[in-house]
């Protein structure tokens, strides 16, 4: 990302961290800026107790405003990290937002991963009454999970011929239309995160506050099973230990999450979304490995192998089916 964008985000983060100073200069905390993320879908810069984010180019303005309003709504207190006020509305055509800084999950300590907290937070998110939000905010955008899956497959196709792509494409073709972002989801409607993984949780207030969900870019209404699909897909592929999956699923059920029954087999409800996330992960693995000029690693091959298993004896599902 251009240095000018990062510098501008640093100023937004400073102003958000010190709203009463009335100055772009910061002499109070003695901290500089740190780039936390620098990707096409989001650049994030931290200063002290605040971060500023430049969202993806081409972000839908109306949907973006609605998602920010949801994050700021009192019904989401204790579930989603609320945004901070900011005078910056856009940066080179990209929406800019400011947020409190929260401590992320430590990837070096997998045993301490907050699977129970993640499951409970997602269950609470799914239980928020949509009518309360639409009354206050208006029409809510759809959850963008299927759109992200379709974009991943498009990235893989853009690579050209790849020896591992065939089972991934076949698994994609076997999904119903809604999971390929070609039709409206026929399943239950709930407020969904749309891109759930452990990187979407932070402790706030830092460093020991409760866990909260972050990143509303894909937030919206849709099938709540999608938010359980990534850990379900990892578990099915052998990347997530069974005990971690059970911790997450058990906490979700204990918090009365609506995506799966309170007991019994959850897979009839999770199957389509889990398969879609398997394809998405495998497609991104192929696209990234090709771009980096390297072979697929073991974890990436496990996801591609899972796609191959999904096609054994399968027939294409009608576009309106949910499993």
Description:
Residues 315-323 have low confidence and may be disordered. The longest helix has 26 residues, at 267-292. The chain is built from ten helices and ten strands. 42% of the residues are buried. It has 323 residues and is an alpha+beta fold. The radius of gyration is 20 Å and the shape is globular. The strands form three sheets. Strands 1-2-3-5-4 form a five-stranded antiparallel β-sheet, with helices on one face. It has a three-stranded antiparallel β-sheet with strand order 6-8-9, covered by helices on one side.
Q: Could you give the topology of this structure?
A:
Elements: H1 3-17, E1 33-39, E2 42-47, E3 50-55, H2 61-72, E4 90-91, E5 94-100, E6 103-104, H3 115-127, H4 130-137, H5 145-158, H6 165-173, E7 190-192, E8 201-203, E9 211-213, E10 220-222, H7 226-237, H8 242-254, H9 267-292, H10 298-310
Antiparallel strand pairs: 1-2, 2-3, 3-5, 4-5, 6-8, 7-10, 8-9
Helix pairs in contact: 3-8, 5-9, 6-9, 6-10, 7-8, 7-9, 9-10
Number of contiguous helices: 10
Poorly predicted ranges: 315-323
Sequence of strands across the biggest β-sheet = 1-2-3-5-4
What is the rounded Rg?
20 Å
Spatial gap, N to C terminus: 41 Å
Strand content: 5-15%
Task: Estimate percent helicity.
Answer: 40-55%
**Whole-number mean pLDDT:** 92
Helix- and strand-based class? alpha+beta
Number of strands: 10
H/E series: HEEEHEEEHHHHEEEEHHHH
- Report on the biggest sheet: 5 strands, antiparallel
Shape estimate: globular
